[in-house]
């Protein structure tokens, strides 16, 4: 097997299942319709008649405290709380390493709730510019990564990537490139997506979600490094491939495009399809795309292929965070799986054409 | 990522959709002459704003520039990106067949993504309730569609990365593309940025008191802010050896880049962090401060930015400050495309021999210190060999790219 492109040395995750890997593992092992007590019911609070799977506010506050939270967007809070967990596991970031440590996050458009509110204000206020100035930075996609860097004093590479359901892969690939080319030593990398009335309505209006799929939210952040500096890795990233298959060419072309990325990842890692022990498809939420993804998996891995882990069944469709939460789900699964070893494959595809995958090696000892 | 020896990276194609015209030639000519692209806001209803100027792209007909994608299916930012990318590929003389058969991808920066789409969604929700959100518009909202449009237009099968590091984003995108070509992970990367003029961005800067009375006057004693602007810009990167072998025109070599994060404040720039970014860029490019012949400044024209930027340069360059100017004096602030326009103008400056001006400066701010040559007025004939291009952003995101002359 070729060298890892990065090691995962810590992981923070926040989803409807809870905070950290153990509740996510428990939710994944439970029945698919397992229902956590929701913060709100479908149809409430300006929401459409659609099931939603929010992160309990108390879980964010337990990491960040309540002070100052109101000024942050929900996306900021989710990403920051997931990062907080990862940094706690690392035992903090030494001051002399802060300029070689950074944050790289994927998202769809940033804080949908904040953008909607801010833009609405330009229409309804007495003058269009009478917006809340302290809300302006939160309308930008890089708000969460910037705020997180401020909170932890991380002056190294800081970036934000957008790419719908592939945003988490985009962030991992950006981070691995930065590590490989010596721009940073440790990157807190992942994806974040908030649930808002606006995003729920957007899902509802497009009718894109499969039946029984809730709209979720969450964040997952992984401390990535080349070499673990003596730390035992949680897992090793063996390959991260991203490509493009124009949806205008039809779903079969998108499936071929994704299958091609899986084949490239396997070749890069020197693995055969049979060595993949678990696959985490990312496109289970949107109706139709799950079938495209399944076709790619069957083509690249054969039948019956590895077992499938389907996190959207327990945490909902999480869009810009889904690939990162898929990786967290894989680590959660491994934390409780009895059989040793294994290789995981996290796939994602966006209706806009981005297709990609992560190949992950389970750490020898957990 | 392969561990083979690094390859030198050339810029062989340029494309632009801007208030100063279409294509690199038009932009560079306007910049050399110090022309302004700023005029009355037309992209949104400016009634009620006290400042009503912007650097907008007028009369853009996307269907005239896009061969493959249907403009009706894409937001304005994606249209800008794809059109600029199409121009860059044509400019480089690289056919779609060559790109389709190569490891070719795109990386594009943006601040606000498909901001006009989000604005229309907000308005639809306000007027008819969220149950009236037009589904087709929802499907155009993700910022990741900016690079997706580029790949779809050019038929690229490599990655399509959209970097959302606000107003420094194009430099991140160019740096990322440079790394991929340099390391051998890609053979062509189309890099740049795009943003569209929109109400929320204008309102935000307006409310912060950061918008100029008339035009932006970077480095001027009476500078009073930015003018919001829009556009799309693209650079085609490929290995220098391959470019020379196919007889391509080489505008410049990408020598390297650097990135830092302030981690102090979301909107106030930080001189120490910018200085660290300049040093990182010099390290990446393998150059020393005295090698730099020109700096294309971030130069927004706000009092704080220009003061901080000059202070950071003095920290690195000491007494010998190279000529530094701001093309935002002509283009306005094109947000996520800004650093990409800086890169394009840097390439044209290296290739055709001039220094871009700070076109609107009337009296250089004495508080910026002695010996600041901000190239006032119009462009200056010169032969720069190494130039550096600044991009700084809200969120504390800083990225600087460095370009070098390639002897013909």
Automatic annotation (TrEMBL), chain A:
SUPFAM superfamilies cross-referenced by the UniProt entry: Thiolase-like (SSF53901)
Keywords: Transferase
Chain intervals for the UniProt region annotation (Disordered): 27-49
Keyword Transferase: yes
Residue intervals passing through the bilayer: none
GO biological process, one term: fatty acid biosynthetic process
Source superkingdom: Bacteria
Bias kind Basic and acidic residues: ranges: 32-43
Keyword Transferase recorded: yes
Boundaries of every Beta-ketoacyl synthase-like N-terminal domain copy: 68-211
Protein name from the UniProt record: 3-oxoacyl-[acyl-carrier-protein] synthase II
Species name: Allonocardiopsis opalescens
GO molecular function: 3-oxoacyl-[acyl-carrier-protein] synthase activity
GO cellular component: cytosol
UniProtKB/TrEMBL annotation, chain B:
Record keywords, A-Z: Transferase
UniProt signal peptide: none
PROSITE patterns tied to this protein: KS3_1, KS3_2
One GO MF term: 3-oxoacyl-[acyl-carrier-protein] synthase activity
Pfam families named in the record: ketoacyl-synt, Ketoacyl-synt_C
GO biological processes: fatty acid biosynthetic process
Domain Ketosynthase family 3 (KS3): 1-405
Protein origin, superkingdom: Bacteria
Protein's UniProt keywords contain Transferase: yes
InterPro entries: Beta-ketoacyl_synthase (IPR000794), Ketoacyl_synth_AS (IPR018201), Ketoacyl_synth_C (IPR014031), Ketoacyl_synth_N (IPR014030), PKS_Beta-ketoAc_synthase_dom (IPR020841), Thiolase-like (IPR016039)
Family: Belongs to the thiolase-like superfamily. Beta-ketoacyl-ACP synthases family.
Protein name stated in the entry: 3-oxoacyl-[acyl-carrier-protein] synthase II
């Amino acid at each position: 097997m070729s060298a890892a492109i990065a090691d995962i040395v810590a992981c923070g995750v926040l989803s409807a299942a809870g905070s950290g890997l153990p509740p996510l593992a428990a939710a994944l092992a439970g029945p698919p319709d397992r229902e956590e007590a929701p913060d709100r019911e479908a149809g409430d609070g300006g929401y459409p008649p659609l099931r939603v799977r929010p992160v309990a506010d108390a879980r964010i506050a337990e990491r960040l405290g309540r002070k100052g939270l109101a000024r942050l967007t929900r996306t900021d809070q989710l990403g920051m709380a997931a990062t907080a967990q990862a940094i706690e596991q690392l035992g903090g970031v030494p001051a002399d390493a802060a300029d070689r440590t950074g944050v790289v996050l994927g998202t769809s458009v940033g804080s949908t709730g904040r953008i909607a509110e801010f833009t609405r204000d330009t229409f309804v206020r007495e003058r269009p510019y009478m917006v809340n100035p302290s809300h302006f930075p939160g309308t930008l996609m890089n708000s969460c990564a910037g705020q997180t860097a401020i909170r932890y004093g991380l002056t190294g590479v800081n970036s934000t990537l957008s790419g719908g359901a592939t945003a988490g892969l985009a962030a991992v690939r950006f981070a691995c490139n930065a590590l490989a080319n010596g721009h940073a030593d440790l990157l807190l990398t992942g994806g974040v997506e908030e649930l808002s009335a606006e995003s729920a309505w957007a899902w509802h209006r497009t009718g894109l979600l499969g039946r029984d799929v809730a709209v979720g939210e969450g964040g997952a952040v992984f401390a990535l490094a080349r070499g673990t500096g003596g730390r035992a890795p949680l897992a090793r990233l063996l390959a991260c491939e991203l490509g493009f298959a124009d949806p205008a060419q039809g779903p079969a072309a998108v499936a071929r495009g994704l299958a091609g990325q899986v084949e490239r990842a396997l070749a890069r890692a020197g693995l055969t399809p049979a060595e993949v022990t678990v696959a985490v498809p990312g496109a289970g939420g949107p109706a139709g795309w799950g079938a495209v993804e399944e076709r790619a998996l069957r083509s690249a891995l054969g039948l019956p292929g590895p077992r499938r882990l389907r996190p959207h069944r327990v945490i909902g469709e999480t869009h810009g965070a889904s690939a990162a939460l898929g990786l967290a789900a894989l680590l959660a699964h491994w934390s409780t799986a009895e059989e040793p070893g294994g290789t995981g494959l996290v796939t994602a595809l966006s209706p806009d054409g981005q297709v990609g995958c992560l190949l992950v090696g389970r750490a020898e000892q957990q | 990522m392969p561990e083979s020896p690094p390859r030198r990276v050339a810029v062989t194609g340029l494309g632009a959709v801007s208030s100063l015209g279409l294509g690199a030639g038009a932009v560079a000519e306007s910049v050399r002459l110090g022309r302004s692209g700023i005029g009355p806001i037309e992209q949104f209803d400016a009634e009620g704003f006290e400042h009503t100027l912007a650097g907008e792209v007028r009369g853009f007909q996307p269907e005239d520039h896009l061969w493959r994608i249907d403009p009706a299916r894409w937001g304005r930012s994606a249209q800008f990106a794809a059109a600029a990318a199409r121009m860059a590929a044509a400019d480089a003389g690289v056919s779609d067949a060559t790109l389709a058969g190569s490891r070719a991808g795109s990386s594009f920066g943006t601040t606000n993504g498909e901001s006009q789409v989000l604005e229309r969604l907000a308005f639809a929700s306000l007027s008819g309730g969220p149950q009236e959100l037009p589904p087709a518009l929802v499907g155009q909202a993700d910022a990741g569609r900016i690079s997706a449009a580029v790949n779809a237009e050019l038929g690229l099968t490599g990655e399509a990365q959209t970097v959302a590091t606000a107003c420094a984003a194009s430099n991140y995108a160019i740096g990322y593309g440079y790394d991929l070509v340099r390391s051998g992970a890609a053979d062509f990367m189309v890099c740049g940025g795009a943003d569209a003029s929109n109400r929320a961005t204008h309102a935000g800067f307006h409310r912060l008191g950061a918008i100029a009375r008339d035009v932006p006057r970077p480095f001027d004693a009476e500078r009073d802010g930015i003018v919001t602007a829009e556009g799309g810009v693209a650079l085609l990167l490929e290995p220098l050896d391959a470019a020379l072998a196919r007889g391509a025109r080489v505008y410049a070599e990408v020598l390297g880049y650097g990135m830092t994060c302030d981690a102090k404040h979301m909107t106030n720039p930080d001189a120490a962090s910018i200085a660290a970014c300049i040093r990182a860029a010099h390290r990446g490019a393998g150059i020393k401060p005295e090698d730099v012949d020109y700096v294309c400044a971030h130069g927004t024209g706000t009092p704080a930015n220009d003061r901080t930027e000059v202070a950071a340069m003095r920290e690195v360059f000491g007494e010998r400050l190279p000529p530094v100017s701001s093309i935002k004096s002509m283009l306005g602030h094109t947000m996520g495309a800004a650093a990409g326009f800086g890169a394009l103008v840097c390439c044209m400056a290296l290739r055709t021999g001039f220094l871009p001006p700070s076109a609107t400066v009337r009296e250089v701010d004495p508080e910026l210190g002695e010996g600041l040559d901000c190239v006032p007025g119009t462009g200056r004939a010169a032969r720069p060999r190494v130039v550096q291009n600044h991009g700084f952003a809200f969120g504390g995101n800083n990225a600087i790219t460095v370009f070098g002359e390639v002897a013909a």
